Every structure is written in structure tokens, then in C-alpha cells.
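To: structure subgroup
Subject: Chain for Friday's discussion

All,

I'm putting the inputs and outputs inline so they're searchable in the archive.
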Amino acid sequence: MSNLKIEETDLLCKKGCGFYGNPAWQGYCSKCWKELKHNKDDKISLKFDPKTTLQQQQQQQPSSTQQQHSLLRKSKIIPSIFGKSLSKLLLLLIFSYSSPKYHDQQSHSHRHQQSKPRSTTTRQSSEESQKVGKELVDYLRSLDMKEIMINIPKQVKGVIEKLYQMSLGNSPVDELSEMLSTFYQLMNDNMTSKHLYKAEEAEELLNLCERYVLTRLYSHLFSPSVTDDEQLDLKLQARIRSLHWISVHLLDVVLNESIDGVREHVESAITAIIEMNAKRCPQDKLECVVKCSKHIFEALKFSKNEPASADEFLPALIYIVLKANPPLLESNIQFITRFTNPTRLMTGEAGYYFTNLCCAVAFIKSLTHESLNLPESEFNRYMNGEITAHDPHISRTCEGLKLMEKNEKTLMEVKSGQEALMAEMLQMQQDMIDFKTSFHSQLTSLKMRAPLKIKPRRKKVDLDADDDSKVLQLPPPLQPQV
């Protein structure tokens, strides 16, 4: 039985700033880690300036950039003349605009394929990127500010082009992360200093910009070739597979999977953590982590019949990760750590659960016999498959038999319900027969007590009618006496 207990203070930054730390940053938060890196290496100074980026593009590609600059200048006056519909079209053109450098590189490397259609050498946006771009454009239009409608797309376009060129040049991933982090900070400072936005508007706008940039560049930033993320994924997956024998009993997890409600929440938590790999932007990946964590808390609540504590959460999360063995878990964690807005991981619900996930992965990597309070010989026998762990709370029945038992229980409940319904129907039928008999009996008794006498129907007398029989019955008329 393990003594894995981590207080919330253990998850905070080692510097004591109050934000959540991260094992990838050696226990520091993103802010303190950045300051530490800058103090160690003053040469790292990656400041992103959209104006500088656009000027560089203008020097290298005057015709294409001048065309884009012309569209930007025209979009300043078109809304006041023609309304917002054309402004929306211009913004869509800005977001869908392809990299001029990319066209030059492709045309240079494929000069012998000039006969092929141009569409084969252009970088097309995915359907998801176009959807997120439309959401950003619609939100910009809802703010109804000309300055915002021009500057924000220009900055987003600039950072996308710069990151794309750096990824093609196999730049270190730390430089890409630093540039994107600086972009978030500059945008936040710009929106805060001008006081043009409400707090919720600035947060939503920065969120949409982050979502669009990372969705657009997902294939270039997720597990880039310059890193060893792929090897780490395979190593972690093999490590988790070798620890398949670890049960809730060895981790001291209060999960009773023999309860249907607990089992359902455990399965939902496993599904949520696996779905993280199918998401493209860090916000959606973090949402999967939050969803998984909430299902774990519900499973613990069902097992104990009372709310679970934070100390019980981490061992349960470790158990879920071991049972799920999520695909590309290391790459997903690194993608979130490197490229999401650092403030998202420093505080809040998502930051807390993500920090716990990083701690769970770190525990799995360094797990030894001492972590589980097992003798080394017994631990080695588990690892070699010589013995299997026994959990008294979980029966060794296979999943197929468990499903059959559950279905049998459901059928018995349905049968009991049908029998109760049939009994009610028979009782209702008997009640109707008894009512009919009682009604006839009461009606007969009433007829005997008070028989109904029917009098002849009265007829109208017609004085003008000629009826000889009645006239003959009249006495003779009186004769006058003289």
C-alpha cells in the first residue's frame, strides 16, 4: 500500500509566488521559469514585433506584401462606405492568405513540375482552422472597432508566418515557445494599456487568437522533429504497459469498481483522457483533463458516499492513467506546456488538474518498489509477470461476464416491472367488473322501491277541427220560449 499523499502546497511554484509549478519547468511556474532562464542566459531575447515581421516580409516579397497592405488600408475606409460585409470579406482574406515565402520555396524545389496545378504547392487551411478563423473574425466584428479589426489580424498573421518559417528552419522548440509566449504577453499588455476592452472581452479575444494560431500550426508545433517527443511517447507507453498489474489496492485508492456508478465514472474518465489526443488546441486538451478529473472525483464520491479530498485525487489519477495508457501522452503534455498561454497553467481549475497530471506522469516514470511499499523481490516478480496483484474490491470476472450479469440484472428489473404492471391491469379489470355488478344491483333496487308511472301524453285541442262523432254527442240546442 503506497503512502502517496501530496498537499496542494506541493503543487505550487518552488519560488513561492503562489502560482502552480510544473515538472517540465523544474517545479517553477512559467513566469519564474522564464526569469530563471533569462538570468542564466542573457543571450535569449526573443521579442516579437508584428511591425518588424511585416517589414521583413515587405523587403523580401514587395508585390505580395504590398497587395496585403493595400487590402489593409482599404479595409479602414470600406466599412464606413459600404458597411461591414466587405470588411468581413477582407478579414477572411487576411486569415486565408498563404505564406509568400512558402510559395517561393515550393516553386524553387519543384521547378521541374511547373505543369502541375498551382493548388498542389499552396498551403491549404484545414476545415477546423477555417472554422476557428471564422469565429475570430465574427468576434472582431462584434466589437465594432476599426483599429481592432485591422491590428489584431495583422498581429495574428505575423506570428503565424514567423512561427511557420521557424518551424521549417528547424528552430529549437524553446525559441518557438518563447516567441508565442511573448506574443501572448504583448497582446495582453496592448489590450490592457489602451483600455478599449472589457476584461472579459480581452480574455475572449486572446483565447480566440491562441486557438486560431495553434490550430493553424498544429501539425508543425505538435511533437516537432527537432525534439525527442516521439521517443518519450514510446518509452512512457511501454512503461505504463509494464505497470498494468498495479491495482487500486497497491496505490491506496478508494475506488470500488464493483459499484455500477463507480465503474461508469471510471470508464468516462478513461475516455476523456484518451480523447485529449484528438483535440488540436490546448484549451480543448485541457478541457479533457478537467473532464477526466471531475469524473474521478465523482467515482471517489460514489465509493465513499461522501465528497473526496484532494489527497485522494492524485492516486486515483495515477490509476486512471495506468489503466487508460493514453496515446502520445508525453507529446500532448509538452504541447500544452510549450504553447498555451502561460497564465492558463498558473491558476484556475485547468492549471490545478494539469499540474496533477504532470505529477502523475512523473510518478509513473520514477515508480519503484519503495513507491508502493513493496519488497524489491516482490516488485520484480510483479514486473516479470510471475505474480499478479489481487484487489479485494474487484472481482476477477472478465468484462464479458460482468456485462452479462449487468444485463441479467436489468432484465430481472424489467420482468419485475412487467409483472407489477400486469397485476395492476388485472386488478383494474376486476374493479370494472365489480363496478358494473354493483351498478346493476343498485339500479334494480331503485326501480323496485320507486317504480316509474308513465302518464298518457296530453294532446292539444283543435277547436276548428270537424269531428262529427263529438258533435253528435252534444245536447240539442235550446229553443227560445215565446
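Points worth raising on Friday:
The chain has a mean pLDDT of 77.
Residues 402-429 form one domain.

D.
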